[in-house]
Amino acid sequence: MEKPMSQSINAAFCAFTAFGLMGVYEGLNDLSGDTLDSGPALMVAVGLAALLASPIALVGFVIYPNLARSWSPSAWYRQYVTEGDKTQRVDWSAMVYSSLLGFVCGVAIVSFFGGIAHDFNQKLMTMAFLGLASFAAGVIGVIIFVGTMPIFKALLGKFTSGGRALVLFPVMMATIGGLLVLIMIGRMDLGAYRIERFTSPLLAIVGGYILFALTRNSSAIIRRAIGAIGVTTLLFGGLILTGDDDWSKRASAIVKQGASSQITLNVLRALTDSDGDGFSDVFAGGDCNDSNPLISPKAKEIPDNNIDENCRGGDLKTEVKPKQVEPKRAPDQIAAAPRVKAAPYNIVFIMIDTLRPDRLGAYGYKRDTSPNIDAFAQNSLLFENVYGQAPNTPRSFPSMITGRYPSRISWEKRYANYGKLTDANQTLFKIFGAAGWRTEMVSAHWYFEKAKGFEKGIHFWDNRGALSIKKSNTQSAAPLITQKIMTRLDELEKRKERFVLFAHYFDPHSRYMNHPDVKVFGKKGLSNKYDSEIAYVDHHIKPVLDRLNSGIWARNTVVVLTSDHGEAFKEHGFYFHGRTVYNEEVKVPLIIRVPGTESKRIKTTIGLVDLLPTLGEMTGVKTETAMGESMVGLWTGTGPIPKKPVFVEQLPYPNYKTHMVAAIDRSGQFKVIQNVTDNILEIFDLKTDPKEKRNLLDKNPDGASPLRQALEQFLDADPG
């Protein structure tokens, strides 16, 4: 009989072994790639797994042996399978079935009330409601367990022989069910919630115990082998803590691709954050002064005080520009001709939510998702490289209508899920309304009810048909929006006023659905359903585009068709949008039909902040508050063309606290991304790496130095 201390030591080594194997899997499967080679990835994953296992091993040191004395797989098998009688087997099976029934009913109750809570606006109320629902579900689950156990006993005792299958069948079904649940969770549309961060450690904890229970009475050779693996795992953990390797590449791989390793990295950074400002000066935490909480990557930079508050490129120096002396003009000098003849065009601005350009035929997509938009693009200006200024509607839409970057907009509360604009903002509606245009908007979505402030200056706004947050997930409003647009065009034609009409199509925003009246691109898979949603919008937008391409509308109306952001399909670890500034989430289509202008494809990088100045130049309306640059020169070939880099911002908000900013040069070659929260810098050559997979920071750090400098200056000037 092995001594208790030896049993406890063996239990701890089993825990380290299980976590070490988890680290091996994560290192080779998740972390190994373009950022880290397999060797360094394996080392860091196993090392971090060892650190995560340390408290588990201490618990296992005490609990595993005691638990094994009361229950172990081998003891259970002997008791109920090989030696048990019918009564024991019936009792055990009845307990399993009644437990499963109580658990399933409890989950169903929580899911039902969770759906109700989805419509709540107050986070505290939602948490309280779900807490009560969970408590009620637990009580009901226990009642069901207690109430049904005698019923199951009676049924199993009467209708079964009490053989081994009575016990093995529920175990087999529970095992298969558990595996199916894990597979389903792995395929679920969880967006930013990488549940494997938590399921992997849980599996390692259970695996460590099972390993101990199966080997505690085995030969000394097997126990020594487990001990050797456990010690090796521990050594990797020690190397992680004592090694002086550069953590920047490690952290980049962990944040972008890691599972449980990200938990450990966050804990290490929190434990080494001496000043409590949320950033550490080790483990690539980004803090340049860990003794001063006023200095960190999230701090506001104060210029000209010789202090680098945000730990980015030194102190911000105010640029002193020499006075410009206006040269005297000779009497016979004539002002240069304008690049385009300003005209009081009507403007129809169509925003199709969540639309990726690379899923449209006009942008080279092979599937026939958008025949009507493609036909419209043939007689229009098509911009090939366009960026929304944020990966979600609550930041991108206000940026689009103000011509300002999200961090430079005046918010009532910047750190909010659905920020409201202050009256200080000059929007598309205010600017054109003050210049004599009638401004109108049609939509059918709850967001516009929450995000107040943008509607100032709108003469007519129709948001009828907007549903709750929950119901909007399955809302297909494209037919309604088309009907609204056609009705407003009828009315505006009668009024004979110049106008701006802004229309918002919510489809193809998730939840994706297949529609029987349009082409379906495969019934399964998110990507297929997304394409089907695009086809649905394209089908219903046809009457609008046909009308705008005919008669007086073709002669006096500028039509803009674009989107607010893109959509991710795990190109960088996430589904959907609102998480990163990689191209799949922020590149958008932009098609502009200008009366009397020939069609043209334009490759220059554009931001949606450039739209307002462009519309202003075409109509003669001043847009001084916009930060973008007019694009008119790109199709007229006269005058200056946009030069300043385009910036994209993922500002933190309560539902997702990561701060990322990107800068893209106008040639479309380089893109620099700064993950402020996790202190990760990335440089991509979009000409050779359009999918943004190869970080050039180590291989060619100077290749985009002007763009890096521009990004640093942009971040330094963030008003916070």
Q: What spatial order of strands do you see in the largest sheet?
A: 5-4-6-1-7-10-2-11
**What Rg, in angstroms, do the CA atoms define?**
31 Å
Helix content: 40-55%
Provide the CATH superfamily of one domain.
Answer: Alkaline Phosphatase, subunit A
Number of helices: 22
Overall mean pLDDT stands at 83
The unreliable regions are: 329-336
Structure classification = alpha/beta
Portion in strands: 5-15%
Distance from first to last alpha carbon: 66 Å
Please outline the major beta sheet.
Answer: 8 strands, mixed
Tell me the total number of β-strands: 16
Oligomerization status of the protein chains: single chain
